Amino acid sequence: MLQNRSIDGQNYSEDTRVLSAIRHIVTDALLPSDGRLPTERDLAAELGAGRRSVRRALDQLEAEGLVWRRQGKGTFIGQPPDPTEELAAKIVSEVDPLTAMEARLCIEPALADLCARRATADDVALLRQLAERTHEAGEAEATEIWDGALHRAIARIAGNRVMLTAFTLIDEVRMGEEWRRKRHRARSPEALAAYDDQHGRIIDAIDARDGAAAADAMRDHLNTLFANLKKSLEKEIR
């Protein structure tokens, strides 16, 4: 049984209980489609706890890379956008979707390889949860959010800061409204089913700590995305 020791005036058992409860919300993906957590005030009321305990829990989860916070926006599952938005905005008009896919094919298989070498059991569990949310998303916007969160998590777990920045720049370039519309048109029910299967194979290889297999699975996935996007863009031109 936990002892009720005081930490800066807070009850130790309350801090532990709140951390456990919010971790459950995050890791079991008990969140709306935008991945945003309730406010500190709402979490405190829901959990019957003080806001300081909630803030401590969010600080801990942010340090673990499970959530990120943006002033005035809220707290979100996963990793924050990298500070490359300004550079991405400068080059987005010079980059077409297929060029971005070429860049992804260069970067993401290598990230999947490193991810397989460095992932913990908790990391793998998070990837499976994100893949499940992607599968269950239904609406195009929600699918985009959770699919992006999965790929960003793989990049983060890979643990290479330079490659993560390169990945994030590509990701930021891809986030334009027009590009999202084009990707949505390339997502047929058959394509979505294939993507779900490919996500599963990527994560299985990461779980097996097989870097080469993870890289191959990611490459197959991106080549499928590339082919479907190319077909969709060709139909647009006709």
From TrEMBL:
Transmembrane segments: none
Pfam families for this protein: FCD, GntR
Keyword GTP-binding attributed: no
Gene3D superfamilies listed in its UniProt record: GntR ligand-binding domain-like (1.20.120.530), Winged helix-like DNA-binding domain superfamily/Winged helix DNA-binding domain (1.10.10.10)
CDD domains: WHTH_GntR
Residues annotated as domain HTH gntR-type: 12-80
Stated name of the protein: FadR/GntR family transcriptional regulator
